[in-house]
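JOB MANIFEST
job_type = single_chain_structure
chain_count = 1
residues = 329
[input]
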Amino acid sequence: MEPGRHIVFVVFDGIKMLDVVGPAEVFAEANLFGADYVLGYASPSGEPVVTSVGLRLPVGGRAADVAGADTVVVSGGDVLVTRAVPADLTEAIRMLRPRARRLVSICTGSFALAAAGVLDGRRATTHWRHARLLSRAHPDVRVQPDALFVEDDGIVTSAGVSAGIDLALALVEQDHGADLARNVARSLVVFMQRPGGQSQFSAPLEVRPPRTPALRSVVDLVAAQPGLPHTVGSLAALIGVSPRHLARMFTAELDITPARFVEQVRLDHAKALLDSGSGVAEAARAAGFGSSETMRRTFVARLGVSPSGYLARFATARRDGDDTAARAR
């Protein structure tokens, strides 16, 4: 075996291409600055796999034949959440776990690790869209839905897709120090440490319609008019129940408190307003936060970024293009 830190990617049919090549490029780029990574690819069967973009990815052999590795990486793929994790993949993970210093998953690769049982009792994360599913399917896993990556006793899991690049940079920093990792980040034109968690990328809250007509009327009112001065008391009075009873209804049917639900709806509404071109003060007023400062505190607490930071990061490409064209004129 060649000297150096061996990174073995365990791949399978349907694997998301960026979940593999994103982290791999970080390790390869690190070698240009003095790192010593040796990259390899293995599949449970030893056969090439077809990625999410239709390209065939050659491998060096069977995962079971990997004698040892510094780091084993299990990337993600939609197939891991739409159907049962293949038994040969979970068996490969169980076999490789004691042979590697670190076991890593990217995005929905955490579902494969969970199915193999190696996440039981541990903290982990995954793509924000699938965090609740991971928690329901594997209740022994302590899911951290907002984290970009989580390390727990040699097992490291990352959030969705491009967060694998954040994770790989963190691993490079662990192995070779901050200066080398910073050079890699600059070379790849990515954040050394991305501001905020993955919640800033999430889609608006999706709530299944409550079975109880009274609760549905409350949910519909908040969703339609988040700018109204909603309180737990006012919402409870709307349907003639006590605040405590309303809280029980929300928890039983929606698994969220009334106050948290109102805050989330307002947050989603504010994000949509900022996305569409509204200013911070305007968005705060229309979304029901009352003041820019209240909205700022909510953004920082829930997303890890301020409204102005969110606005700068997610400003539309059209607006940026218009500004560029105006300067050119």
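[summary]
The mean pLDDT is 86.
The longest strand covers residues 5-10.
exit_status = 0
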